[in-house]
Design brief:
Layout (H helix, E strand, L loop, with lengths): L2 H5 L3 H11 L4 H10 L8 H23 L11 H8 L2 H8 L5 H17 L3 H6 L2 H10 L3 H17 L12 H7 L2 H15 L12 H10 L5 H10 L4 H10 L11 H8 L7 H20 L11 H29 L4 H10 L2 H13 L21 H17 L11 H6 L19 H11 L6 H13 L5 H8 L3 H11 L5 H15 L3 H10 L3 H12 L2 H18 L6 H9 L1 H7 L1 H13 L11 H16 L3 H14 L5 H17 L3 H11 L3 H11 L29
Helix pairs in contact: 2-3, 3-4, 4-7, 7-10, 9-10, 10-12, 12-18, 15-18, 15-20, 17-18, 18-21, 21-24, 23-24, 24-27, 26-27, 26-29, 27-30, 28-31, 30-33, 30-34, 33-34, 34-38
Length: 719
């Protein structure tokens, strides 16, 4: 019903209909609001009307939040439905630019409550770019900041086209005007504007589809443009680093308990927050009772008096989640080196190291939640979200960058005698332990199936990724990391595929080309029973364990060329793992399965490693003149399984995709070269030889497929 038509109805008629329909006077209130919305009107009555409307709608909104946001229905939230039906949203949008601060605040609350309970209202608001940009101008006023930020966050979350930050009037001045609390809240908005649209789990998207998408979109995305816009704001990164690393005692602006309660309103979309609040209040009392006799008096203080301090802690944790997320996204963007330089300069890592024991890992939270991707919403408690975001940040910070050594302290750096620490020493961690060592300690204390183990292992693995460093490996080996990983894989009873995959990948990086690591492996896996459990875990999912298989194959190949080294010869003869992989039938078994579990249509970022591992096996065979033997073995396997042509046709298509995918990507090719110590030119040569069209060539796949079984799909990649 057009709202202007409704407001032309006689008030008496509306009131009469109101009694029967139980509209609670909302149409009459909206009529009054509309009539008082002209510039020359007296807004005294407007204030009263907005207060009444806000009260009617807020009760339903609060009910909606506490019911875990179940699907809203007209019968469930009649007041909100009536408000929207009679044009309340349009009236509010039209009137808000004319109101003073107090009235704006009420009007924003009305709109937000309506968005919560009525499907479609948020999308309507999101379609009005002029209104969205106007909302940003309201953020300059502290009185209306929280309500404005909350509404903007909801609107941007459903907006079809991502907003460009450079459209916001005087964005730089706006951000610089924020205090630290406001900046943390603003990060919730920024997270929507700098992240690529979440169209599902990134790992599950096929590489074929992603490559086609990249061909269509050659210019920078809006998210990438927004990242550049943020980095150009003077002092922005420095302020985020200060927010991320400040202690709870340094937080300001939370001394007013009533003001703090009002701020909590913006976080109530997470129903776990209040549970966390009560838990922290209890934990603080327990913690204080063990600190000192002076501080133990906190344990005797009634809970109602401890809540403000608990609010402060949970507030600070939730602020840091948002800030760390923004920093993490920027670290993974195109301006990564610029961001890295600033994070080092502003001492983000030493600051986080100082917070590790007292705030980040202050207690060992049980975590049985599903592992989330980078852009997925998380319904975890604030403390769990904080830990995960912290670990994600460490992973992004350490991955293929020399700044990873900032995770150590000066004494730990001295251990790595092969590493030049020029220009780094003053920026490393202080204290008795660096951040990496603290992370290892926390990792060993986690329960076997805790999904924190996944993120912890990923963060430590990123420290090792890139060109293999013997010094880095030994640093971690000396701290018992290999034995811990093997315990988790063999003895702990861990069943989580995510955790096991992360441990396989970490073990591969830790052992690669390191004869001491294989010696330690053999010392731990000292019975046939243990070794069989280890093999069973590897064989249960090659998609998860293939990086470890690749490490073993590469290491074996290198060790076999170092027979003049007595230590290497000794380990080669004694290590059960190397002996197992030295048997050609076992390498062939892995090759058969790696080729068989993937095809071009199902290749993703997660399983493409299986293709590269199969290539590593064949490249090493080619170096030793054994490539024809392996190709013939694949052919014999096809006939034995009564599927002639199946494996080799599939492998041929996979290699054609490999050329299409990797020859256009510098980063991926560099990663392949660094991780294998095989020049990328040899990767390319081997693929070209395998794809040769001469059927008489002993190294061309085509020569091993009999004519009747040739099913090469020439148009696959073009489609």
């Amino acid at each position: 019903v057009p709202f202007i038509f409704c407001f032309q109805l006689p008030e008496a008629l509306l009131q009469e209909r109101d009694k029967r329909a139980k509209w609670h006077g909302i149409p009459v209130l909206l009529q009054e609001l509309y009539e008082s919305s002209h510039l020359n009107s007296d807004f005294t009555r407007t204030h009263t009307v907005l207060k009444e409307l806000s009260s009617l709608l807020s009760m339903e909104a609060m009910s909606f939040v506490t019911e875990d946001r179940k699907t809203a229905q007209e019968s469930t939230f009649p007041n909100t439905y009536t408000f929207d039906l009679f044009g309340g949203v349009d009236v509010s949008v039209n009137i808000i630019p004319k109101l003073n601060d107090d009235l704006v605040k009420d009007c924003l609350s009305v709109l937000y409550n309506c968005c919560i309970c009525t499907e479609g209202v948020t999308k309507i608001l999101a379609s009005r770019d002029d209104f969205v940009l106007f909302l940003f101008t309201l953020m300059t006023n502290k009185k209306t900041f929280l309500q404005t930020a909350t509404l903007i966050e909801d609107i941007l979350g459903v907006k079809k086209e991502m907003i460009q930050l450079e459209w916001i009037p005087n964005l730089s001045g706006l951000v610089q005007s924020f205090d630290q609390q406001q900046l943390a809240n603003f990060c919730r908005i920024l997270s929507v504007t700098i992240s690529e649209p979440d169209v599902g789990n990134d790992d599950k998207h096929t590489l074929l589809a992603k490559n086609a998408q990249q061909k269509r979109n050659t210019s920078p995305s809006r998210a990438e443009v927004n990242q550049v816009t943020l980095l150009n704001i003077p002092g922005f990164i420095e302020r985020l680093c200060k927010l991320a690393t400040r202690k709870v005692s340094e937080a300001t602006g939370t001394s007013n308990f009533l003001q703090e309660l009002e701020e909590w309103y913006t976080w109530l979309d997470n129903t776990l927050v209040l549970d966390a609040l009560m838990q922290i209040a209890t934990d603080e009392a327990e913690h204080s009772s063990t600190e000192s006799s002076d501080e133990s008096t906190l344990a005797t203080i009634p809970l109602r008096h401890r809540l403000p301090q608990s609010m402060k802690i949970v507030h600070e944790i939730m602020y840091k989640v948002e800030v760390l997320y923004v920093l993490c996204v920027l670290l993974m963007g195109r301006q990564r080196n610029q961001v890295h330089k600033m994070l080092a300069e502003f001492r983000l890592i030493p600051g986080l190291n100082n917070l590790f024991d007292k705030l980040i890992w202050r207690k060992y939270t049980t975590s049985n939640h599903v592992v989330h991707g980078q852009n997925e919403n998380c319904d975890c408690s604030p403390e769990i979200s904080f830990k995960i975001q912290f670990l994600r940040l460490l992973q992004s910070f350490s991955d293929h960058h020399e700044n990873k050594y900032l995770l150590l302290n000066a004494q730990e750096l001295n251990e790595l005698s092969a590493i030049s620490a020029v220009g780094v020493t003053s920026l490393v961690c202080d204290g008795k332990k660096g951040l990496l060592t603290r992370l290892l300690t926390s990792m060993k204390r986690e329960p076997p199936d805790s999904s924190f183990r996944f993120w912890q292992a990923r963060a430590v693995e990123s420290f090792l990724r890139g060109a293999t460093s013997y010094a880095d490996q030994m640093f971690l080996l000396k701290r018992g990391l290999l034995e811990h990983i093997l315990f988790c894989i063999i003895d702990s009873g861990c069943k989580s595929r995510d955790v096991l995959q992360s441990y396989f990948d970490l073990l591969g990086e830790l052992m690669k080309f390191n004869i001491d690591a294989f010696k330690r492996f053999n010392k731990y896996v000292n019975t046939e029973e243990k070794f069989q459990v280890f093999l069973t875990q590897i064989n249960s999912s090659l998609v998860d364990s293939n990086m470890l298989v690749r490490c073993i194959v590469l290491s074996l190949d290198r060790f076999e060329s170092q027979t003049e080294d007595v230590k290497v010869v000794e380990v080669l003869s004694e290590c059960c793992l190397l002996s197992y992989m030295a048997r050609v039938e076992n390498r062939l078994s892995f090759l058969f399965r790696l080729v068989n579990i993937i095809n071009v249509q199902t290749l993703t970022q997660e399983n493409v490693s299986c293709l590269n591992t199969s290539l590593v096996i064949l490249m090493l065979a080619r170096r030793r003149g054994k490539l024809p033997f392996y190709l013939n073995a694949l052919r014999e396997k096809e006939y034995a399984e009564k599927y002639p042509g199946c494996l080799l046709n599939n492998f041929h298509n996979l290699l054609r995709f490999w050329q299409h995918h990797y020859l256009n990507k510098d980063k991926d090719s560099t990663c392949l070269e660094n991780s294998s110590c095989i020049p990328f030119s040899f990767w390319k040569e081997t693929v070209s030889v395998l794809l040769g069209e001469d059927r008489t060539s002993p190294c061309a796949i085509i020569g091993y497929i009999d004519e009747p079984y040739m099913e090469l799909d020439r148009d696959l990649l073009e489609d």
